[in-house]
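User: My instructor asked us to take a sequence, write out its structure as tokens, and then describe one feature of it. I'm not sure where to start. Here is the sequence I was given:
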Amino acid sequence: MAKTMGAVMGDNMEEEIILETERLALRRLRRADYADLCLMLKDEEVMYAYEHAFEDWEAADWLDRQLMRYEKYGFGLWAVILKETGELIGQCGLTMQEAGEREVLEVGYLFRKDFWHCGYALEAAAACRDYAFEKLGAEEVYSIIRDTNAPSRAVAERNGMTVCGSIVKHYYGMDMPHLLYRISRSEAGADSAQKAGQDLEHV
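Assistant: Let's start with the prediction itself. The structure tokens for your sequence are:
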């Protein structure tokens, strides 16, 4: 039997929740999450798109950047909590990112290896996409993904996004081609309507 959110996360958890899906709750990252973040950021398989597992200072800098984003924008990458257990299983959220000569709003996601292939990334990413349109009033949302990162590309495509361009990021001493995935507010509305119609077909 699944535990209630209050039982696994504490009675004040509901006040901290930014987004909630059927299986997940998203909240701001905290300093106390550092060890859980390291389970992802220091895992070479999880970080393969970055070409290396993070060192301690890189993981600390990553957390600092999210906390600064909360202060500057009111959003950033959030902690993804599995409701059933209260575990921090990943990160997903919205960040401002450079895309060539402009800045765009991006949905980003990163999950612990032992929680891959469960649909959590798509579940969280779709909720963040909708948050961008409904709460932030965004007209379009992007995901900027390394061209060799097939799993992340699949999530973006299932999130209703299509490729609209490409950029090259210079990182860790190498050039890394990235694809720009994009979805507009009107496209997101049409996608939601189509899914609702598909659901009705199975009622």
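For the description part of your assignment, you could build on this observation: The chain has one domain: 5-201. Try explaining in your own words what that tells you about the chain.
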